[in-house]
Amino acid sequence: MGIPHLVLIHGWIPFAVVIFIIFVFSWIYVRYYQDHLESEMSTTITAIIALTITLITSAMVPLDIFLVSYMKTSDGTFKSWAANLTDRSSFEDNISYTYYGLYAVVILFLFLILPFMYFYFEEQDDEVTCKMRMCGAMKYTIVFIIAASIILLVGSFVPLKHPPSNVTQWDDKLNYLKNEIKTSHGETALTFTIGLLTFVGMISIISYTAYGMSVLPLELIKGYRSIKDERYSLNAKRETLQTQIGLLTDKYVGKRRMSTRDRSRLSKLEDEERLLNRRHGRLNNADMKCCKNCFVLFRPFQIALGIFFILLALLIVISLVITVIDKAMHSLGYKYGYSLPDPRFVNPVNKVMLYAQEVIMLS
Length: 363
Fold this sequence. Notes:
Elements: H1 5-33, H2 41-69, H3 85-122, H4 130-157, H5 170-184, H6 187-222, H7 227-250, H8 260-288, H9 299-330, H10 348-357
Helix pairs in contact: 1-2, 2-3, 3-4, 3-6, 4-6, 6-9, 7-8
């Protein structure tokens, strides 16, 4: 028995709507944060597509959970259309292939398309042709291709099982290794690469989250400078930048072209000047708003919110330390992922969640 069309409609039509929303969000996000004075259509479209595919990969998780849970009834038995093991396995394989396809596209963008488009944009110059830009971009992109090849190669060998004890000859071990790679169809290399990228992303998220949780409360308590002081500081920085730009351009008066180093420095100074001009414009717009004085009334609430975030950060840190100590002393060990079936220490976050559950529906 095949999968009912109603199941596919309930799963894939909302997912198509989510894909459209993700695409619109990616378009707005990239267009908002890009430099409109120095942007190209090719790099913009590439960034939008890359962000869209990455978010779609994350959106596959709830769809996967929905489709798998939809196979069973409320008593835990499989529905009639999912009772056949062959049909169910085929359906699950299709979901797995969708994951692998999206992961492969993410790796392709990360190690080939995005580096190529980045260096293609950096090679932009008045006297550089499109062919020269592509050659220069490809030259630097080769480094990323080599890195991806090494990671995929390591991923093909590292997760493999050890040969059986009766396989002692070198030729037999090599044949066993070839058979393992053929059997996995490259899944081990792909999952290893995605796991490595996930680890790097997790480190970045941890770093930025820790920094944000420590800086945000302090910024709220400290407050911000007045518009007058901010404008004075911006004007001083702009004068310094304009002086440096003037000295750099006067250095090449009468000469035909700048050196590569000075041209790069001039471009960086001009970028900083544009950012300062943009901030100056925002300050002028904020100064013209009639509600600017109303923010003074919210200053006590801002301080209280900062104190609340400090206490929240301390609560999370203490809970993490207690959990780490508890797992180090009473867990099942590294072979079981430091699983802690019976926690011995009281975790403050768990207690807060239990008390909050009495007020709101929080599990």
